[in-house]
């Protein structure tokens, strides 16, 4: 099975130490024994901090995006180091490079690609581009909720939702790095049009990636309708 895993930067770089990188490296190595694995890494707090500096300099949102992309690629390079010889030792800057590097038979790890595309969008486009069987988005919450679970105690986990319904939920939201609306419109449109099996799960426990791949009931499953 060909899998694309999107790992939020807020998961990997949360505590500024090596442990999450190491834990994910171990999980990804095991998955790669049976599956073809692509990984897209987010920027997390470091990206947001640098983006704010660029925004304060009034350089424009495209420049903010560009700096954020560079941070995602640094996070990707750190994961390359953790994976050692199990991974292709170069971060693709676009989808064609990712596909070309995958001919090596090794794990592929990348960050962002270009302005106006979140790493969630990148993972969805990549999944379509390489004809993945499954997309797993690992974030800081258990899945998609009826409202922000960090703010509302009555927020309910949505175990299953169609791509069309999800588009309606986030329509009109100003989706930026660091907001609860962790999937942007582009990502959902890609999931819908490519009929891509997608799961959103909590990435704090790297084992959830394994559970999602095995088809265990976890997080939120997006049905491509």
Automatic annotation (TrEMBL):
GO MF term set: ATP binding; UMP kinase activity
GO biological process terms, semicolon-separated: 'de novo' CTP biosynthetic process; UDP biosynthetic process
Enzyme Commission numbers on file: 2.7.4.22
Protein residues bound to ATP: 9-10, 44, 48, 139, 145, 148
Keywords: ATP-binding, Cytoplasm, Kinase, Nucleotide-binding, Pyrimidine biosynthesis, Transferase
Localization, UniProt: Cytoplasm
Activity regulation summary: Inhibited by UTP.
CDD domains per record: AAK_UMPK-PyrH-Pf
Binding site for UMP: 43, 65, 113-119
Enzyme class: transferase
Catalysis: reaction(s): UMP + ATP = UDP + ADP
Domain Aspartate/glutamate/uridylate kinase: 1-202
Assigned GO CC terms: cytoplasm
Pathway of action: Pyrimidine metabolism; CTP biosynthesis via de novo pathway; UDP from UMP (UMPK route): step 1/1
Quaternary state and interactors: Homohexamer.
Known function: Catalyzes the reversible phosphorylation of UMP to UDP.
UniProt similarity note: Belongs to the UMP kinase family.
Protein name, as recorded: Uridylate kinase
Gene: pyrH
